[in-house]
Amino acid sequence: MPAKFIQAVYSSLKQDMAALAAKREKTGKKNGKLKFRSGYNAIELNQYGNTHRILFGNDGNRNGKYRNTVHIAGIKRPIRVFGMEQIPGDAEYANAKLMKRPSGIYLLLTCYVPRDAKRDGKEEKPPIGLDFGIKTTITTSEGDKYDISVREPERLKGLQKKLARQKKGSRGWYDTKHLIRREYEKLCNKRRAKANQVYHDIVTGRKLIVMQDENIKGWHKGLFGRQVQNSALGTLNAKLSANPNVLVVDRFFPSTRMCLRCGVINEGITLSDRIFTCRCGYTEERDMKAAKTLLLAGKHKRSCTLAGRKCPPEERKSDFDTSYEIWEHSARRPEKGKSPEAPSSSIS
Ligand SMILES: [Zn+2]
Q: Over the stretch 258-280, which tens digit does the pLDDT of each residue have?
């Protein structure tokens, strides 16, 4: 392996350590002892033209001898790559990553493509609120429901049973293990595709997206473990959290119970109630109502941060705004460690 690659591995390791330390500092969370890794399956190719080179396209050789081939430093012969047709002719190549995955070896290539005017000029959409649930999983304040569950393939179960029967360390055991890894890779791809699709649907064209800081890790452990694991929820949540247009409302905000018209908190709502009904006469489907309430809370929060000190001026303040402020200032939040009540209010 060329020294350059080893250097890249070393520097990415250093970067990861720095990121870990920074995260520890910021969140105060502990991380365990570092463990030994026996394998490494990604090589960073960080200098186009030097570490790797595509032998077609910009070189005007798309159909020539080196069709669909890539040159990688340290390997003398050009390497054939499938799927090159996905790269537009006017793309500018940048760094790449050579990855070994259970189903084969992949080249992840970063390209720069000239901006598409049609894509940039996409219409702007109004702000939206999102309620994360388990069954339908995501409900928007506009009433759309996204089912983001991805089912575990039947084959995986069969393979796992087979593995359990086989002698550990035997040839067949390793073969089965490899097949299981491939199935997991497929599952992961499906999940990611789903998350990307829903993310795109929700986020494109929006300046404000409001969601609640859900305790997904807690769900994994608890009652809903299986269902959460079988969905793209975690991936989607990470993507949304990284978006600057996404506003996150406190985990303990009673989005299900607070009425969005009069601001009263209706304690009587239980997990089985599908319809929200308030004393003031407001009635709405439960999940959509939660999403709408979140959107209002988000708008309120946004206007506070934009305007400075005084939140919406008194004359424009609605009952909901007042109620939200009261909730925010009251120390109603459960203490750390005992929070079974709050997350369950947002589930369902
Ligand atoms: Zn009400």
A: 888 888 888 877 777 788 888 88
